[in-house]
Amino acid sequence: MPQSYIKRILDARIYDLAVETPLDATPLISSRTGNKVLLKREDLQPVFSFKIRGAYNKLLQLSDKQRAGGVIAASAGNHAQGLALAAQHLGVSATIVMPRTTPAIKIEAVKRRGAKVVQVGDTYDEASTFAKNLVKEKGMTYVPPYDDADVIAGQGTVAMEILRQHTGKIDAIFIPVGGGGLCAGMAAYIKFVRPEIKVFAVEPVDAACLKAALEADRRVTLPQVGIFADGVAVAQIGKETYRVIKETVDGVITASVDEICAAIKDIFEDTRSIAEPAGALSLAGLKKYVADTGAKNQTLIAIDSGANTDFDRLRYISERTEIGEKREAIFAVTIPEQPGSYKKFCSLLGKRSITEFNYRYADNRDAHIFVGMQISPAKNDRQEIMKTLTEKGYKAVDMTDNEMAKLHIRHMVGGHAPQAQNEIVYRFEFPERPGALLNFLNKLADQWNISMFHYRNHGSAYGRVLVGMQIPKGDRKRLEALLKDLGYNYWEETQNDAYQYFLS
């Protein structure tokens, strides 16, 4: 039962290394949502993440023999840094197995804390398999990132601090979920001590493994996982964490990339700190809860779980924030290809600000424009714009929620290619390592012509790629087989409105 964790959490002696983090007021977020919103600042831990709690608590429970044999973990992020620092503090040898896609800044951070880094594979699963094989070969102790009772108990100390720091009314606490260690530990403690407090788990829309498990009433493995919020990019919830969470949480909320980016900006405006995507996830869930339920005058707490983000990612985060805040909408609109059309179109919009306008000549009759507009989050602006355009005879498509349009099309509107016969379009996530593109080209390019290519990287472990290839109908099955063998995440986008309007 989850109650078994209470003594473990109370007995966790982690504070000679981890710190008790503040529970900060957020005047701007609170004013905007009409609630008292508090932020638990786990980004202020020595490794800028709550992960130090669980990793250190696990090491404290090991025997002298286990410590002497050294510890090992597979991680590309915060668990790696937490374990490295914990091991350094206790004088224990630590080996961290990291995917080859891990950004250099994270590798150096682990090395600075005295751990040995071994790079294997492109994914966490490959690194994890290698690490577990080393356990058998060398007798080291494996320290899991979340699915372990001592790790869960260490993370549960976050809840213990919150309830000590704020003894008054708390209506709900929002906790980010990847593998579930933080949520399991916190929820077990909260529901034992203050069962009237609602606990909500928050996941990315494209990595909602807990939501999928609860719906299926069993742990399931997601076929694909979005990697923007890499700290919670987990395909399957932990076995022990799921056992605890399903008995203790009041619900699961999912947040989109845009909503997470908006929450990062919210945290910055109130604290002048920059949360990593997983760090801002619970605030995105909190805001969605307020919007969906109309909650007012409540005390709501979100966990700022970490701040380990690469500087290069900030341009992408900034770009997506306006949409996440519902302050920008993007549309594909067809206007007549004749002088004065653009002026007439802008006049129709009145004083509404145009944030972006992309266009290239295609034919003498119609012009397809890609247009961004400022909207008010308090109004039903997107629907009003669509209604206005339709009533005036314009053909328009709302692309505000179209991932391909936001990732690629807005940067490459360049006209149609009627000569590109039999073109099929795919969106890929390439592992960001030397040879990834060459591997793709070796498998595909010699067999079919590449008719379109757009690549973007945002400082993450994966680059976003849009590819058009000319594939005769008889070759479709062979192409699909090669794409599966390639092993990269991909989505066919040939029927996507953004492609059909601007590039097909």
Task: Report on this structure.
The chain has 504 residues and is of the alpha/beta class. The chain has helices at residues 4-10, 27-33, 51-61, 64-69, 78-90, 104-112, 124-138, 149-165, 181-193, 209-216, 239-248, 257-271, 277-293, 314-324, 341-348, 381-391, 403-412, 436-444, 476-486, 497-502, and strands spanning 23-25, 36-41, 71-74, 94-98, 116-119, 141-142, 172-176, 198-204, 251-255, 299-304, 328-336, 354-358, 366-374, 395-398, 423-431, 449-457, 462-470, 489-492. It folds into four domains: 4-49 and 149-319, Rossmann fold, CATH 3.40.50.1100; 51-142, Rossmann fold (3-Layer(aba) Sandwich), CATH 3.40.50; 326-401, Biosynthetic Threonine Deaminase, Domain 3 (Biosynthetic Threonine Deaminase, domain 3, 3-Layer(aba) Sandwich), CATH 3.40.1020; 416-502, 3-Layer(aba) Sandwich (Biosynthetic Threonine Deaminase, domain 3), CATH 3.40.1020.10. It is built from 20 helices and 18 strands. Strands 1-2-10-7-8-9 form a six-stranded mixed β-sheet, with helices on both faces. α3 (51-61) crosses α8, α5 (78-90) runs parallel beside α6 (104-112) and α9 packs parallel to α11 (239-248). The longest helix is centred in the first third of the chain and has 17 residues, at 149-165. The termini are far apart. The model has no long low-confidence stretch (mean pLDDT 88).
Tally the helices.
20
Given this structure, which CATH class of the largest domain is correct? Alpha Beta
End-to-end separation: 57 Å
- What fraction, in percent, of the residue positions are helical? 40-55%
